[in-house]
Structure formats: structure tokens, C-alpha cells
Specification:
244 residues
């Protein structure tokens, strides 16, 4: 009798453990420090990665991160290659037509980075100049909204900063934590570049994107994000990775 009871308890523990350890595979373009990037140990790390790990702990799922290039990341979601995208994806009306989003987990703004000796105070002063941005990002969209500016798109934002550093373009537009990472903290660039201005274009928030109708993943991720925010864990992660 004892043996049968023990086996029953063990089976229940295994079943419960399986339920609590549900894997959610997140695609990420790990070229966007400090949000998501490949660290010195070759592992994907960053603010958003730690955030989803904390959310998983709170909601009972295990995040698994898969490196995917930005230019194919949304097509891969639609094809079912992964469950969700955790890659500094700004929630926009156009994107909401194609996919579902979690509740917001980070407020972001667009920043213009220029050479340190530049006198530019706003993006409108860049007319006739060439600005770089990662393709199909809200930074790229912001450049395109200003008439008279030439835009140059890149597969990775780091390539845009390298071109700016070498004088091949006149500025870079990207999310403000990424701009701060390159212009203020990167040893190679911090003495040559600066943030000229923050581009005011209304509220912009990051969310976790998933295929439309994937309610199971949406509910788990939302539960985790809410718990992280309610407990103030998000503020601790922001201080660790962004410093504000």
C-alpha cells in the first residue's frame, strides 16, 4: 500500500513539475544592447532577457531564447518557428493588426546620435543629411517621417554606429537605451559621439509579440510581467542594465 501511495505521489509531482516548467521559446535579435545582446560568455543576455526570466519564475514558465535576425523575425513568428518575440518590439497599430502583444513592459523614446562636435539640436536640422537606423524599426520610421532627410537602413544597429563613427553617415536614430549604450558607455564611441536630442513622437512601449490567438502564451506572459511590475523587480532590472 505504501509503495503504491509513494508511486502516486511521485507521479503527481512529475506532472506538476511538467506543468510549471512549460517552455516558451522567444526569438530575439541579440544585437540591441543593453536590452538583448550576446555577452562575453556567448550567451544571450540583457534587460529583456532577465525580465522574461523573472516573469517566467513568477508565472511558471521557462523562457528559452533563440537568436533570430531582425529582418526575418516576424515571418518566423507567423510560420510558428517560436512562440513569441522578445526583442525590443515597439507596440504599434500596424503591428497589432498582424500579431498579439503582451501588456507593455518598458517605455522607450527615439534618440538622435551625432558626432560630438555637431551643433544639431533637433532632427529637422538634419535635412540634406543621411541618418542611419536598423531596418523596419521605429527609429527607421522616425527618419522617414522627416522630409528632406536621406535614410540608410542596416541589418544591425551596431553597423550604423560604426558608419557614423567613421564619417560615412551623419547620425543614427534608435531607441534611447541603445543610444545611451553606444554614445555614452561604449569605450570606442563615447568620446566621439553624443545624443543630440530625444525625438518626441508620442508614447512608445515595448511588448512581447506572439501569433494572433495564442492565448495560452499571452496569458502566461502577461501574468509574469504584471507580477514583475507589482513586486518592483522591473525597477531593479532597469537599475542594473540601464542605470535609471
Amino acid at each position: 500500500m505504501f509503495k503504491r501511495t509513494l508511486l502516486t505521489v511521485m507521479a503527481l509531482v512529475l506532472l506538476t513539475g511538467t506543468a510549471l516548467a512549460k517552455d516558451i521559446v522567444f526569438a530575439t535579435d541579440a544585437t540591441w544592447p543593453p536590452m538583448e545582446f550576446v555577452g562575453p560568455d556567448k550567451a544571450i543576455t540583457g534587460f529583456a532577457v532577465d525580465y522574461m526570466k523573472a516573469a517566467g519564475k513568477e508565472a511558471g514558465f521557462t523562457p528559452v531564447f533563440k537568436a533570430v535576425a531582425w529582418d526575418g523575425i516576424f515571418a518566423g513568428l507567423d510560420a510558428g518557428n517560436y512562440d513569441a518575440i522578445c526583442s525590443s518590439v515597439s507596440i504599434t497599430d500596424e503591428r497589432k493588426n498582424a500579431m498579439d502583444f503582451s501588456i507593455p513592459y518598458f517605455k522607450v523614446r527615439q534618440a538622435l546620435v551625432v558626432p560630438k562636435d555637431s551643433k544639431v539640436k533637433n532632427i529637422e536640422e538634419m535635412k540634406g543629411k543621411t541618418l542611419g537606423a536598423q531596418i523596419s524599426t521605429t527609429g527607421h520610421f522616425a527618419i522617414k517621417k522627416v522630409e528632406g532627410i536621406k535614410d540608410k537602413s542596416y541589418d544591425e544597429v551596431g553597423l550604423a554606429f560604426e558608419d557614423l563613427f567613421n564619417g560615412r553617415i551623419d547620425g543614427v536614430v534608435c531607441d534611447d537605451p541603445v543610444a545611451a549604450q553606444y554614445a555614452l558607455q561604449n569605450d570606442k564611441y563615447k568620446n566621439a559621439l553624443k545624443i543630440a536630442t530625444i525625438i518626441e513622437a508620442g508614447d512608445e512601449f515595448y511588448g512581447i509579440a506572439m501569433k494572433k490567438g495564442n492565448k495560452e502564451v499571452l496569458d502566461l506572459v502577461n501574468t509574469g510581467i504584471k507580477a514583475v511590475q507589482d513586486k518592483g523587480i522591473d525597477k531593479e532590472l532597469q537599475k542594473k542594465w540601464i542605470g535609471q
